[in-house]
Amino acid sequence: MIDEPPLSLSVLQSPSGPAAQARPADLIRVAGLSVTMGQGAKRQVVLSHIDFAVPEGAFVCLIGPSGCGKSTLLKVLAGLVEPTSGTVSVAGLAPGEAARQSQIGLVFQDANLLPWKSALDNAAFLLGVTHKSLPRAELRARAQAMLSLVGLGESGHKRPNELSGGMRQRVSIARALALDPRVLLMDEPFGALDAITREAMTGSLLEIWERTGKTIVFVTHSIDEAVMLASQVHVMGIRPGRIVQTVEIGLAYPRDEGLPETAEFGQYKRRLRRALQASHEPGAVA
Ligand SMILES: Nc1ncnc2c1ncn2[C@@H]1O[C@H](COP(=O)(O)OP(=O)(O)O)[C@@H](O)[C@H]1O
Ligand SMILES: [Mg+2]
User: Fold this and answer.
1) Deepest of 49, 59, 256, 274, by most Cβ within 10 A of its Cβ?
2) Predicted confidence (pLDDT) per residue in 191-204, tens digit
3) What burial letters (b/e) apply to 34-50, b meaning 16+ CB within 10 Å?
4) What is the pTM of this model?
5) Residues 37-51, mean pLDDT to the nearest whole number
6) Residues in contact with 196: Cβ distance below 8 Å, sequence separation at least 6, in sequence order
7) Bond preceding residue 189 cis, omega within 30 of 0
8) Which residues line ligand 1 (CB under 6 A)?
9) Ligand nearest to the CA of 65
């Protein structure tokens, strides 16, 4: 197998984490991106003149009203939707090529697990597909390590119907991480979970991010989630889908569960709320 991407065995970085890296280079670059979809009278500009860059190791959130193109933007980054104009690169590659080289891990709102497979086999599934020559023992060891990382080290034998919604989503994160991608693209991954589970997942994801140093682009509807997770939030507007404002979240990491009670957190929430309110007005720039 000469075509397989190299598999780094050091998924886990030093405990100092991403913050220790000085001025990281941009891992994702989007310049002048526009996407038009549909035919004839249904033709519409879904994304218009999107420009942003994501430094390696950053945690970036996209937030905006329904239909503003968040999922489409993530699909462009994943190589699943072609730009109509503009340029996009991930790890220096066209997104489709980056995906082919396992540089991109995807997590959606639905965990999409195979119901007849155990949590361990589900976590190993994509890695098994992309690295067919990987010895079975190594495949399982790696999937087990990722399950442990997401807090499911003891649950590898369970089938999806024996797992809670939060646990199923943890398996889908383990499945994406098993590829050892440089970028994790997450589309409202906690959107279907109850409030308490969602908070626990948010804390776990921050820990996973700090331990792995992955670059994360995370789509959410939740202002709280965006402020808790991101170092930078792009607020998107609708008709056409575009970035109306970028808000830097200057709260230090690690962020603990008491943070939402602080005045600073409240200030960032109010800023994001104002930007979002403005973003609902077509054509408005916040
Ligand atoms: N394959 C497609 N063909 C035509 N229109 C699409 C397609 N995918 C998405 N759209 C349209 O693009 C817009 C943005 O959709 P989407 O990216 O799903 O928004 P969001 O995730 O922000 O809710 C919507 O108006 C949607 O109808
Ligand atoms: Mg969406």
Assistant:
1) 59
2) 999 999 999 999 99
3) bbeeeeeeeeebbbbeb
4) 0.91
5) 95
6) none
7) no
8) 37-38, 46, 64, 66-72, 241
9) 1
